[in-house]
Design goal:
The complex is a heterodimer of chains A (286) and B (431).
Chain A (H helix, E strand, L loop, with lengths): L1 H21 L1 H4 L12 E6 L8 H10 L23 E5 L6 E5 L8 H5 L5 E3 L5 E3 L9 H5 L6 E2 L8 E2 L5 H4 L6 H5 L5 E5 H14 L19 E4 L19 H28 L9
Parallel strand pairs in A: 1-9
Antiparallel strand pairs in A: 1-8, 2-3, 4-5, 6-7
Chain B lengths: L4 H4 L9 H9 L8 H23 L1 H4 L10 H13 L2 H11 L9 H16 L2 H4 L8 H4 L8 H28 L2 H31 L17 H27 L6 H36 L8 H27 L2 H25 L13 H22 L10 H11 L4 H12 L1
Helix pairs in contact in B: 3-16, 5-7, 5-15, 5-16, 6-7, 6-11, 6-12, 7-10, 7-16, 10-11, 11-12, 11-17, 12-13, 12-15, 13-14, 13-15, 14-15
Classes of the chains: A alpha+beta (286), B mainly alpha (431).
Bound molecules: iron/sulfur cluster (SF4) (2 copies).
């Protein structure tokens, strides 16, 4: 009895110190957090989508892209591209077939932005992640970095651009909603403040616990995304990446970037010292 | 203080005008129809034509890059591998200028020249790969600083390091042009440039690895680790050594007539020393790799096709050449050392391509394979670098000894008091 209690104490002590080391926010990251930021986002409820492609057509019109040429088809996986910022896929499942819209996730701390050498990829304070043509040098590091493979590149052009959904950032300023949201007849896509969307999503799960998996994709993935998903089947069945973890991508390179000024400051001093230490005494050979 | 006949052909003679001299130096020296030229000249010409195609028809027409594979061999080989190969410059200057291992002094110039040209050509290849190269100035002039980007850091370090290397090599240019005063000023900058250059090198060698940290979910778990930056630095040490050994062995055959007989004798000593250092670096690297493997708990993956590639890389291209280096150094055999260097250089190519291309999205059905045009342009870049190296070596005191006046300056710089006046006097006498 005594030993177990001691062990328990030890364990809690360990856990406490570990959580202190990790920092309080990380230790409790798993608990429900309210998103109080003013950032906007989108909620995609895949149980409502009927695969009508209204969103695709509206997106093409709003962005001056050619209208979609193919339809959602259960056997085939459509991907976004240089002339389609959003596509709907049909996925077979044990219940009925599910339709699922994909586009940029507008990550809270986007990998693409932390990769971009020119700041062309930019996380606006309002939430949408946009691309700025006058800055981009076409290095395609954003494509390498994006965990969802969203940015697409115009390989055939000699003035190539990066193409991706920008959550209709230019329309939002005029008080309008993203084109896809406006067009959806099913309210499968909703636009709003991310915190409100999270509340709506949680409420839907609570009200219809049998209809949804109890998980909101995008709540914690890669540190949270501004686009959120609800589903009736586990997300991996929809083809979502569920192994991305909850660490925001910029964290991966932070240690390295922090060590840079250190090396540049201490390195020269260290080497100058070393050179001094190894100088030959009276020996003037050179 | 007359220049000897040998040095005369490797520098501007006193009283000769600068411009006619440079014009005459631009003409080719040596035989034109060597086997190397016969192979490389058409490749370079074809490469140039393809580069024109790249800029008129776009990346899609020349490369096999696509939306799944944004980076191909122009990054994975030209930049990532090429820069590792150029690491000899920072490791050697560390040995010679920081640790003062004078033994290696005679090969510093060739190595720094090679490193400098490698950066110019290989990171120059970046301009081919970048889709909007006219915007490359953005992160440099400061209207678009992506300071949170590893690539931003790497790009800046390339740039600064190129300048540092140019300063390190510039005394040779001054000797070639016979610019005495400049030579004296430039040689006082060497140590500063070296120390700064080493720091920059450590950072961008690791930075090239850190680039791939953001590809977390895309690189095979046997290669992806948070320690990629450390592994890149450590492996750059033996990558650089191997290239120095290979380049030195070739140069000894091709430019043998220029090399001072005194240095000929030292050459085996140098190779043995470099071989030992490479072996030590490889041991550390191998050890770290094993630690990472144990830490990652991916043993089950070893018996998959990718696992076999991993094992070939580790055993065939790290462990084996490491033992060969040790053996070659033991019996002091140049050929064994050269073989070890070639194998470990191939291993570096293999490793860098693994991380950037082969193990990148290893499970995608239509994996990227470079187009023939990508390969030809890559070869053209490599040959172009060798041509530039040869051009410089045939004209500047790289393998040949510096002219006597330059040595005099060095001597006086080493014991500064009386030197200043003396130089001034000499310059006047000569003029
Ligand atoms: S999904 Fe990709 S492109 Fe979109 S914000 Fe996130 S990292 Fe950037
Ligand atoms: S391609 Fe453009 S947007 Fe993407 S990382 Fe490079 S500079 Fe930034």
């Amino acid at each position: 009895m005594k030993t177990t209690r001691r062990e328990l104490l030890k364990l809690t002590g360990l856990a406490a110190s570990a959580s202190l080391l990790l920092g309080p926010d990380k230790a409790f990251a798993r608990t429900v957090q309210r998103d109080t930021s003013t950032q906007v986002g989108m909620l995609v409820d895949t149980t409502r989508c009927i695969g009508c492609q209204s969103c695709e057509i509206a997106c093409s019109e709003a962005n001056g892209l050619p209208p979609p040429t193919d339809k959602p088809n259960a056997g085939q996986r459509r991907t976004t591209g240089i002339d389609a910022y959003t596509v709907v896929n049909e996925i077979e499942s044990e219940k009925s077939n599910i339709f699922c819209k994909t586009q940029c996730m507008h990550c809270d701390q986007p990998a693409c932005v932390s990769a971009c050498i020119t700041n062309a990829m930019y996380k606006t304070p309002e939430g949408p992640v946009i691309w700025r043509e006058n800055k981009c040098m076409g290095c395609r590091y954003c494509m390498l970095a994006c965990p969802f493979d969203v940015p697409k590149f115009e390989y055939e052009s000699i003035n190539p651009r990066i193409r991706k959904c920008i959550l209709c950032y230019d329309r939002l300023g005029d008080g309008k909603q993203p084109a896809c949201v406006e067009a959806c007849p099913q309210e499968a896509v909703q636009y709003g403040r991310r915190g409100d969307l999270l509340d709506i999503a949680r409420k839907r799960i609570a009200d219809h616990p049998a209809q949804y998996v109890h998980n909101i994709y995008g709540e914690n993935e890669v540190g949270g995304t501004n686009v959120l998903y609800l589903s009736s089947v586990p997300f991996e069945q929809l083809g979502f990446k569920t192994d991305l973890g909850t660490v925001a991508y910029p964290e991966f390179t932070k240690t390295f970037l922090y060590s840079v000024p250190l090396v540049l400051l201490l390195g020269p001093a260290f080497m100058a010292g070393l050179r001094h230490a190894t100088r030959p005494g009276d020996d003037k050979s050179h | 203080m007359n220049t000897t006949p040998t040095t005369r052909s490797f520098g501007r003679a006193v009283g000769q005008d600068l411009w006619p001299f440079i014009k005459s130096e631009l003409k080719p020296k040596g035989k034109l129809l060597t086997p190397f030229n016969i192979i490389s000249a058409p490749v370079i010409l074809l490469g140039l034509a393809l580069i024109v195609l790249r800029f008129t028809k776009g990346l899609g027409a020349t490369t096999n890059l696509n939306q799944e594979f944004p980076w191909g061999i122009w990054i994975g080989f030209d930049v990532v591998t090429g820069v590792a190969f150029a690491a000899g410059a920072y490791t050697l200057t560390f040995l010679v200028y920081v640790l003062r291992m004078e033994k290696y002094h005679s090969i510093v110039r060739a190595t720094v020249l090679n490193g400098f040209l490698a950066y110019v050509f290989y990171s120059g290849a970046l301009a081919l790969d970048v889709g909007r190269p006219w915007k490359m100035i953005n992160p440099i002039i400061g209207n678009s600083f992506g300071i949170s980007s590893v690539l931003f850091l790497v790009a800046w370090h390339f740039l600064l390091y190129m300048i540092a290397q140019f300063i390190e090599f510039s005394p040779a240019i001054a000797e070639w042009l016979g610019l005495r005063r400049l030579r004296k000023i430039l040689s006082t900058l060497t140590v500063g440039a070296v120390i700064f250059g080493i720091c920059l090198s450590l950072l961008h060698q690791s930075g090239l690895g850190a680039l791939f940290l953001l590809a977390a979910a895309k690189i095979h778990p046997l290669w992806y680790t948070e320690y990629i930056p450390v592994l890149f630095v450590v492996s750059s040490v033996f990558a650089g050594m191997s290239i120095v050994i290979i380049e030195g062995s070739i140069s000894h055959r091709v430019f043998g007539n220029m090399i001072d007989p005194k240095h000929h004798a030292e050459h085996t000593d140098i190779l043995v020393g470099l071989g030992r250092l490479a072996a030590v670096a490889m041991f550390v690297y191998f050890f770290l790799k094993v630690l990472v493997l144990i830490h990652g708990l991916h043993f089950d993956l070893l018996n998959t096709p990718m696992g076999h590639i991993y094992l070939i890389e580790m055993v065939g291209f790290v462990l084996f050449p490491m033992l060969l280096f040790i053996y070659g150094a033991q019996i002091r055999n140049k050929n064994v050392l050269l073989s070890a260097a070639i194998i470990s250089a191939l291993g570096i190519i293999f490793n860098r391509l693994n991380i950037s291309v082969i193990a990148f999205k290893w499970d995608v059905p239509m994996h990227y394979v470079p187009s023939w045009m990508e390969i030809v342009i890559t070869l053209a870049v490599v040959f172009g670098e060798i041509w530039a190296f040869r051009w410089a070596v045939n004209r500047m005191p790289v393998f040949v000894d510096s002219p006597a006046w330059a040595k005099q300056i060095d001597k006086e710089l080493a014991e500064p008091q009386p030197a200043v006046q003396e130089i001034g006097l000499k310059d006047k006498q000569i003029a």
